[in-house]
Amino acid sequence: MLFGCIHVPDFPVQAALRREPIPGPVALLDGPESLLKVVACNDLARNAGIDIGMTKLEAEVCPGVALRKRVIEDEESAQAALLDCGYSFSPRVESTCPGTIIADLTGSERLLGDGRNIGPLLLDRAEACNLKANVGIAANPDAALCAARGFRGITIIASGDEAVRLAHLPVRVLKPTPETLDILDAWGIRDFQSLAALPPIPLTQRLGQYGLHLQRLAKGGVERELVPAEAPTLFHEDIELEEAVELLEPLSFILNRLLEQLTARLRARSLATDHVQADLFLEVHPDRELSAASLPDSIAPLHQRALKLPVPTQEAKVLLKLLQLDLAAHPPQAPVKKIRIEVRPARIRLTQTGLFQPLAPEAQKLEITLARLRAVAGETDTEGRGRVGFPVILDSHRPDSFEVLPVGPDRDDQRALVASSRLALRWFRPAVAASVELMNARPVAVQFRRKKARVVHATGPWRTSGAWWDAKESWNRDEWDVHLSVDGASGLYRIFLDHRTGQWFVEGMYD
Prior knowledge:
By secondary structure, this protein is an alpha+beta fold.
């Protein structure tokens, strides 16, 4: 059996500084605004005189100490990143407590080597997530946990050497209750070796089974099963800005950091994403008496944008460019105060490529090109149909009935075009109004766009009608295919008579 533990000292502080590192002493404040107190600090802050429980006024007296407000979302995000570090080495990872995980490394020696090789890999993975951690590797989970909490850097304990290697660690590493710690201190028990040397029966009589369990932990002899953490269905990163951001350029800089962290977490689990949602929380000005209820309908305190990719990707630059183009086309209507990026995990899609070049355009570059086209041409037309994508004819007899679907390699509707002798009709949108002369109920001349053309040959009529129950969607018309000749030139056109209005139109021209 082999277990590895990653422990992050001063976890709340490191979680707060993961996105915005601050050199020097740092202390975190929490509580009501009228009574903020220090709840966490780093070693530099302790050396500067900061103690847990200090009020904000007392902490401000210490020179050079940066004070920050505690944000629970930062700690949740850092804990999720820590779990991702463990999942990159083992499918069984336990979220033991905030800032600490334990991974079951049994069997990984064949792939990664022994503990001396695995330890630096665990440490490098944590540092890639901007977390400075300690690593403990032992034959049981609790021995690895005590080693990571008590020793700096990488500690490897061979099976059977737990009691000797842990002997000089202080008792507080076991995290006993304050009452138990006071009792042990009164007895003069301050390290693991002294606790392990106590007689078990008198210890149990005074401290109960809890005291006996602490003694077993001090000896490194507790055997237990890990409680694996549940794999998340969504990955998200949040950041709350001190100053609201109005321009897209600084907003893109922040989005880039969040996307890089998310893609790093996905790569750690050998996953990708094909769905990205950006929630931008807009700034509300209390001094202007604006609230969510008083904002006009056109402005909402939350600006949401979603991207759906045809192929999963792990590239943060691709996701950033797509978000930039989308936000440029749909900018938020107020300064952004908080950002939340959420991605849905998906399996990596592997494709066969040529020997020297891809067999098809890269999906990421194609998606960016389509996003640029949507930014230029617009997303939808006047009838709500998409402008960029793959046209599909709807199962309807209504003329010009089609929709444009998003481009994706897995769609059943996207088939290769087959060469055919059929004519292609170039639709006029909207249809061109025309004046038609009839003889024996057949068209003999058509006038449109200030020109009059003679009908050489006409075929029809074909009457189509439908949706009679809906006044807006109903249609009733006669269609003709006509061969027109004007000024020595000729062409094939489709014309129709709208029976609802009695007006003739030229619908299109055959190529």
